[in-house]
Design a protein that fits this description.
The structure holds two protein chains of two kinds.
Chain A: H1 2-47, E1 50-51, E2 59-60, H2 64-71, H3 73-103, H4 109-123, H5 126-136, H6 144-151, H7 166-191, H8 195-203, H9 208-219, H10 221-236, H11 240-245, H12 257-267, H13 271-299
Helix pairs in contact in A: 1-13, 2-3, 2-13, 3-7, 3-10, 4-7, 7-10, 10-13, 12-13
Chain B: H1 18-46, H2 67-74, H3 77-108, H4 114-126, H5 133-141, H6 154-158, H7 165-177, H8 181-188, H9 193-204, H10 206-221, H11 225-230, H12 239-242, H13 255-274, H14 276-289
Helix pairs in contact in B: 1-13, 2-13, 3-7, 3-10, 4-7, 7-10, 8-9, 10-14
The chains are: A mainly alpha, B mainly alpha.
């Protein structure tokens, strides 16, 4: 009698232990995510409805922080700059990335070399990219980039130093770093295109252009959707490049949402308004993601 | 030969004749110059007497010198580099361990709410880190429930990168593919959970470790906003954060920036070149699935 009882007990205990085991393995991840993702997210949402004053205690202000964002010219122009930058960088990177992918498709050794060299900007730390381009964009007539365009008879440009060209110059850096990334994803997409379609279209007398237009492009459609979402989200949340290249200057012409949030929240201590700005940024990325998903579903 | 002509859309490799080949070669040369040129100029400049931006080019006229790296020592560049290595070393170790543990639980154990937890982890991947930067700075300064302040500490830069949805996801997907028979055999032989994990599961996951290792390294090395929030004094700066303070030097001008930037660039480039296959695999799988 005693033996079966002991064995049932033992089994029950071991089953209980085995049920706890996965939770123990998960615990580190869940605790870290709780502290550094979920709690900050919730805290951000809470702060966005308060005037945050540290030890003095917070005051509930309802939607005032959001009002401030919608009405303040600094915020609306920062949002506009973020969107412009996102659209320009995304479009530029995708077009150039597709071009690169088409030119560098194949398995030859020299193609591998060119692809690797072209991919270097993607793995380079953003801070280094920004500092290199600050130097490249040196506005003097004998600055690096101005010297190069001088060989082709183009007049020196002010790049980051002028309000008319600063945003475009930052876009250029974004495309320089974004295009090789898109190239890699396009190359993976191109590898999945059915080769027999190329051959049969050639047999039917289709030109290279028509083959590209009617066989390759349709096959790449899912890749476009993914890249668009990824790049657009990365575009509107851009911070480091802008912070290092111009930090909003000259004359606020390159102030984007994140540099403004950084200034307000982490330098001036306007935590409530900065938190509300962050929530607006978050909603922007959610809307973009959902919109692209919905578009894809309707297409499919 | 005929079939190969249709390997690519443009079929550039199969164009015959002198002019097309030269044309293709020039296109490739321009590509390498545009994308790698500025970075190569940076490396050359780090070893030359480049005092101001106008001397920045692929052929500087200063001649080979190490004085930028000597000046870098006076400007604490090697201390910043040390900080970066501490953060990336411990951060990556933590991130890999956390990911493997979590993946082991999610892929190998039938547990309640597994789908829900996966969703919660995926949700953090959709959440841009910029969005939580401001509240994170508040949380880091006053960690509940013990009111621990991580501002100005290594831990403040390391712990937030410890759990990364991408790594957990990649590792979980991989572990689902590894056959379970070996584990069951080990368990029948009386090996405990931890023993089974370390001597059976972990060695089988080596290919995926390469992917999450190189991605985790790049991710942590690339951190900017987080150390910017956490560091309160220059002595706590990581190298990427410090670059901004090194833009010019009385003696060597931008030379010190070039030397420091090269040191910040090199580890990620080496990691990429050494683990290129894993890098491209992770990139495409992550993007196509995400």
């Amino acid at each position: 009698m005693a033996v079966p009882l002991a064995s049932t007990l033992g089994r029950r205990r071991s089953r209980r232990r085995s049920r706890a085991v996965p939770w123990l393995f998960l615990a580190p991840a869940l605790i870290l995510l709780l502290y550094f993702k979920y709690i900050p997210m919730a805290e951000g949402l809470r702060m966005s409805f308060y005037e945050v004053r540290g030890y003095l205690g917070d005051t509930w202000v309802g939607g005032d922080n959001y009002d401030e964002i919608v009405t303040s010219e600094a915020f609306t122009s920062a949002i506009a700059h973020s969107l412009l930058l996102a659209v320009g960088t995304t479009a530029g990177s995708m077009v150039l990335g597709l071009g690169l992918a088409l030119l560098l498709e194949g398995s030859a050794r020299h193609l591998w070399f060119v692809r690797t060299a072209a991919f270097l900007p993607v793995v380079t730390t953003i801070a280094v990219v920004a500092e290199v381009w600050r130097i490249m964009y040196h506005p003097a007539a004998d600055g690096p980039l101005n010297s190069i365009i001088g060989w082709f008879g183009i007049a020196p440009q002010p790049y980051l130093a002028d309000a008319d060209s600063s945003l475009l110059s930052i876009m250029g850096v974004g495309v320089w770093r974004g295009a090789p990334y898109d190239m890699m994803i396009f190359l993976a997409g191109l590898a999945g295109v059915d080769r027999t379609l190329y051959e049969s279209s050639a047999v039917d007398g289709a030109s290279t252009w028509r083959r590209f237009r009617h066989v390759t492009l349709p096959a790449l459609r899912p890749v476009f959707a993914i890249l668009f979402t990824l790049a657009a989200i990365r575009g509107i949340r851009v911070f480091t490049e802008v912070f290092l290249l111009t930090n909003g200057a000259p004359n606020g012409s390159t102030e984007v949402l994140m540099t403004l949030i950084y200034k307000l929240g982490l330098q001036r201590g306007e935590l409530g308004i900065a938190a509300a700005g962050s929530i607006v940024l978050f909603l922007g990325t959610v809307v973009l993601t959902v919109a692209v998903r919905a578009l894809r579903r309707r297409e499919a | 030969m005929r079939a190969e002509r249709f390997d690519t859309v443009l079929g550039l490799s199969y164009r015959r004749g002198f002019a097309p080949r030269i044309g293709v070669f020039i296109v490739y040369a321009v590509m390498v110059l545009v994308f790698a040129g500025p970075l190569v100029a940076l490396m050359i400049g780090a070893f030359s007497r480049v005092v101001d931006p106008t001397g920045f080019s692929l052929v500087p006229d200063g001649g080979f010198t190490l004085r930028n790296f000597v000046a870098a020592k006076d400007r604490d560049v090697y201390h910043y580099l040390f900080n970066s290595f501490v953060v990336v070393g411990f951060g990556l170790l933590l991130q890999i361990l956390v990911s493997i543990f979590a993946a082991y639980a999610l892929a190998r154990h039938r547990m309640r709410f597994a789908a829900l937890i996966m969703l919660a982890i995926l949700a953090t991947m959709m959440l841009p880190e910029e969005v939580i930067a401001v509240p994170l700075s508040v949380v880091l300064a006053d960690l509940p429930p013990f009111d621990i302040n991580l501002i100005g500490t290594y831990a403040g830069m390391i712990l937030p990168v410890g759990a990364w949805g991408f790594s957990i996801l990649v590792m979980t997907e991989f572990m689902k593919e590894v056959p379970v028979e070996l584990e069951e055999a080990a368990r029948i032989d009386g090996a405990g959970e931890l023993r089974t994990f370390f001597s059976i599961v972990l060695p089988l996951c080596r290919p995926a470790l390469g992917v999450i290792g190189v991605f985790g390294f790049t991710m942590i090395w690339d951190q900017y906003l987080l150390p910017l929030i956490v560091a309160t004094e220059p002595s706590q700066y990581t190298l990427p954060i410090a670059l901004r303070t090194l833009r010019s030097d009385e003696e060597v001008g931008i030379g010190v920036l070039l030397a420091a930037a090269m040191l910040a660039l090199l580890p990620s480039v080496i990691a990429f070149l050494a683990f290129q296959r894993q890098f491209v695999r992770g990139l495409t799988s992550g993007a196509i699935k995400g």
